[in-house]
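re: ur question from earlier - yeah i can do the single chain one, its not a big deal. heres the input i used so u can compare w yours
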Amino acid sequence: MIGIFDSGIGGLTVVKEVLKQLPEYQIIYFGDTARTPYGNKSPKIIQQYAFKNTQFLIKKGAKLIIVACNTASAVAFNDLKSKYNLPIFEVITPAVEKAVSITKKKRVGVIGTRATIESGIYQNLIKKINLKIDFFPQACPLLVPLIEENWMKKPETKMILKKYLYPLKLKQIDTLILGCTHYPIIKDLIQIKMGKRVKLVDSAEEIVIKLKQFVENNKGIEKGLAKNRDHQFYLSDITSRAQEIGNKWLETKIKFQLANFE
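and the output i got, formated as tokens:
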């Protein structure tokens, strides 16, 4: 199975892309809704959560892992790669590579949780690829809770989003990385606030493009992946709202199960 975990339900945007680009493969998803958001927690705690999430998915039969959480990708990915002997993917590098390839003005912004932005990982990766690119990060700590609460259409959300994006508009960026897998859910709102001239980079889309290339080029691993549509969805805390949002985002009826870490 393809294992995917996130701090909450935002990682379903990655699930949706896997279903679109690799529809034949079975998916197991875990959303840590009991402990979301990760973005305001310490690196040590985030690493602990990432290890537990990965171990859970492996025990359930995952043969490769997507860390569908920018915060965990930024803070815990290298440790996960060192500890577990299976393919593990993070959502940051593919988005950075895409942004660098499409920016015309060499002015790139990123929005993400506070932990993701403070890690400096986006800036470091961009500078490794092209030192001439001007980079502008913006922490947006309130967006994940608002999205998890399904407040996407509330005027308060639009007001907060406008406040977060305004400094990036002043910097006249031409490319904006959505540095959290929750953010594609409000992609249309972000595009409206930034304007049509700014290209958005969706980390969910980019990581699955990389995954598809990996699967096609590694036949030994590909053969070990279950091929059916008996997908499994787990949360650490199940609410009726999470169930409702999950069905809406994936545009199909799914059933969340409660994860047992014992």
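Strands lie at 2-6, 27-31, 64-67, 88-90, 107-112, 134-139, 175-178, 199-202, 232-235, 256-258. not sure if urs matches, ping me
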